[in-house]
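Please, does this match?
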Amino acid sequence: MRLPDIGKIDRDVFDSLIYPHLGKRRRTVVIGPEHGVDAGAFEVDDKVIVIAEDPTFGMPSLMPYFGWSIVHICASDVAVLGIPPMYMTISLLLPLGTKYEELREIWMQIHNECEKLGISIVGGHTGIYPGIAYPLNGGCTVIGIGRKDDLRPASNAQPGDKIIVTKGAAIEAAAILAIQAEKELEKVLGRDIVQKAKNMIYEMSVVEDALTAAKYSHAMHDATEGGLLNGIYEMARASGLGVVVYEKDIIIRPEVEAITRYFNIDPLISISEGTLVIAAPEENVQMLLNALKKKGIDATVVGEFTEEKRYRLIKRDGEEETLCPVRFDPFWEAYFSTLKGE
């Protein structure tokens, strides 16, 4: 069995190595580690504690947004379970030579975004160490407290649920590539498209999407590595259902289409932090779309979950393709290609 060259381990490694070895088993664990599930939950008295853990590595081009992204990426994993994020701990690891002003910039972003989202920082670790090229969130833990009935895990989709997707595909991939390769892309695509794509960096959060959608939905999941189609596949697999997805109904913004075409990557399977996948009963769909619209969040219905356990993508030309797990996100090769010569 082989590990991926970069990114998350795949389902085979998780199922064979991680899942069977999870320490002491407790009946109070409501949602434990599962491949494709964003956070865990356990019971304390009449409440559930939702907890999520994420690293964030400091890509050179993303340093101006580093603190912002730490908070939103980690808080999103709690929010997708339908519970507001409330508390945070963080291990912030800094390279040798880091200046006070650099730490201050990162930390004030963390503080400001936590304040906006109502998150209290309750602990952590901050230090300077060798062997680190750029500032690194070695592990951010976000915690929320709620009721068991409020949980909306990715594994809770129901047959007949419609699939609603916010913001569209490849939000993160297009934003990061636009920032990293700004000058190169402006020469080919023009400044307007590149600036629009860069601004999508601040859409790499599903906190508001998820907390708005929670009361109308059965299950939610954010489309991170492997992109939108992988996120939908993970929900179907976790729920023990089949799925049919209509490619024509998926939002691909002009700037996303232009940038992914330039790098020759498929936007449907490229990393898309900020895209929320929602499973909702048909009678709730219009109310859900209206609630998201009031928040300024674009969303479309792109398919449905089925009792028949087939994973299908209906292409724009009407051809049918089997929906499979994404083993390698094409974003990474494109991203590393932009670093050549730096």
User: Anything to note?
Assistant: The chain has a mean pLDDT of 93. The domain at 154-337 is CATH 3.90.650.10 (Phosphoribosyl-aminoimidazole Synthetase; Chain A, domain 2). The chain has two domains: 22-150, 154-337.
